[in-house]
Amino acid sequence: MCYKFALESYNGTIKALALDRLPESQRFTFTGYLDGFNQAAQCIGSIAVAPLVRRFNIKSVLATAIAVFAGISAVSMVVEAATGGRIQGGRIIAGSWDPVGVIPIFVASGFSHGTVELIRRIIPRDIVGGDVIKLKKMDALVHIFYEVAGTAGAFFATFMALKLGKGFAPIVTPIFFTVAAILWSRIAITPADKDTTLTSLEHHRENIFVAVGNAFKAFGLAIYEGGRIIFTNRRFTWLIFGYSIPLVLHRYLENGLAANYAKIVLNESAYGSLIVGGSNFGELLGALFVFIFTYVIRTPLPWLRLDAITLSIVWVLYAITPTTLGISPLGTAGVLAAIFIPVSMGWAAGDVSLAAFIQSHVSRLQDTNPHVSSLGAVMSFLYVLYIVLFAIMSPVIGQWVDGMPKEDKGRYFFWIGGVMYTILGVVIFASTFWPRGSWKFNPTLEEDYPDVEDDVEQNADAGAGGKGEKPTDEMMDAMF
């Protein structure tokens, strides 16, 4: 909870700082690059995990990564103070440093962020062992606390940005990250699994730089193999529109539309974190719905259709302003936070159920390449496709917005939040009818994916080390 709370507080305040300080003529172009490069850095940080945990204890890698993140998160505040930034007589005085410097700082944080995000998904097996029931309980409990902390962190970011200014708003982030590093360094690894995790040095004596290079080569090969599987196998082609595109839209909803609305319409970039807080709460509800209805809704298609429908709600960004509602900008941000709950609930339900679906069914394919698993390849391709699309879309849209007259920037929410999201929602909805047997309200997809329940059980056993392979390797493949 310390990690997620601090992360949301940091991301929200850094984005608000960028929107306030960057040159007005290139403000949205630069923030587009800020988000795109950060996502790419997270990808690189994730790739580096495999060679690192083969050489060092997994909990040490995790603790070190978050400690480095703590140091990076303090850089902007140190620079702010060193260049004259302060609070004097209740008035916030900004530092004189070049605000473009926030881009390399945020990008650098992405490397540590990517490392932490991957390890926190694969370490539960090393904590509780291979018991599937314990793993499910731990994953569910962690996810609930994770989103609760994320919601609180986003709301807290708004409060701190208004009280201390954007330059000093992330003041709790290094503290909470340091606490997380101390706690994570004391994680107890189950004795039975110490010899099967990737922390053994005896079998991995290659130079660390060579190991990282090999990891990048393997990742590139996985992307190629994943693209081949998706484009040559009818059963999985629709995953591009069911997984990658919704992920791009959700990320831009929080990092782009919400933040830009706060700056353009509400004239206070700090309110963007408040809106994102509502989105995080929606993600929590979506995950809970999937957990509750696991045995009732057996495929991700109904959830994806819900996601596609709720995307049309984003039209409210064009229709709602403080003037039309007759309330303050802060009140308007609160209304949008509530409206974003069902939007993100639909996405989270689809994303959680689809991730499990992909792991259950893609893993059934026979591996045609001895160096790459089919599951790892497909996840690699879908993830990289999301990164590339987002990295291109953010600065391109930002440049377009920068070229608009100030009084006409509301058209941005009409064409992007309204038209683009609605059209892509229709495309996503239509893609859910691509698999055989999908023309039902709650399909089972037995024609294209027979023996669903048996496959799920077999995949759960494999994820717990049931095939006699190194379980942590399999989990990391699934993440890519």
Largest sheet: 2 strands, antiparallel
User: How many DSSP E strands?
Assistant: 2
Going across the biggest sheet, name each strand in turn. 1-2
Fraction of helical residues = over 70%
Radius of gyration: 22 Å
Structural class: mainly alpha
Cα distance, first to last residue?
A: 25 Å
List the helices and strands and how they pair.
Elements: H1 2-21, H2 27-47, H3 49-55, H4 58-82, E1 86-88, E2 91-93, H5 102-122, H6 124-128, H7 132-164, H8 173-184, H9 208-232, H10 234-237, H11 239-264, H12 271-292, H13 301-310, H14 316-319, H15 322-325, H16 329-362, H17 374-402, H18 411-431, H19 452-463, H20 471-479
Antiparallel strand pairs: 1-2
Helix pairs in contact: 1-2, 1-7, 1-8, 1-11, 2-5, 2-17, 3-9, 4-5, 4-8, 7-12, 9-17, 11-12, 11-16, 11-17, 11-18, 12-16, 13-16, 13-18, 16-19, 17-20
Task: Write up this protein.
This protein has 480 residues and is mainly α. The protein has 20 helices and 2 strands. α12 runs parallel beside α16. The radius of gyration is 22 Å and the shape is globular. It starts with a helix and ends with a helix.
Main attributes?
480 residues; two-stranded antiparallel sheet; 1% strand
Q: What's this model, at a glance?
A:
Helix content is 72%, strand content 1%. The protein has helices at residues 2-21, 27-47, 49-55, 58-82, 102-122, 124-128, 132-164, 173-184, 208-232, 234-237, 239-264, 271-292, 301-310, 316-319, 322-325, 329-362, 374-402, 411-431, 452-463, 471-479; strands spanning 86-88, 91-93.
